[in-house]
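User: New here, any thoughts?
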Amino acid sequence: ALIREPIPHLAALGETDADLARAMWDVIVAAEAEGIRKAGPIEHAGEVLRTLHARGYRLAVLTNNARDAVLPKLEEFAFDALFEVIATRTEVPALKPSPDGVRYILEHLPGIGAAYVIGDAWIDGLAADAAGVRFIGFGPREQVARERGVHAWRWISDLRELLDLPLGEE
């Protein structure tokens, strides 16, 4: 049977057996490397990120992937310089849906007035909620997120919609 749980929850199942845990993470890392190798930017991501950056928004990345896997991809698309903080599983004590990554970013972006997590998965929404940050959902998985208890501040289907939201005007 297929278990629909985030990777950290699945990996935790093997924590009682060191050999099993190591084997599980080997599979996770191999799948992650293959997925990142094939990954491309979301449609309009470059345009939206550059516009938000030019408007003075302080940007960060939070991913459950490893730093060594993520940085080359961000560099490939010239996104790395747009982010003040890049938080990966290498730096964060607990992975999404834990709020630890959101808290890590907030600690490294002092002085911000309002923060938002923008994500395409329910684990992003739960992490935002647990950290006390507004969640902006993106893409076709709104119903799945709702079923998992996520309450998005907004849900968008095109990244360019971010540019018209009243960010920071609460």
Observations:
- The radius of gyration is 16 Å.
- The first strand starts at residue 59 and ends at 62.
- The mean pLDDT is 89.
- Residues 16 and 22 are 11 Å apart (CA to CA).
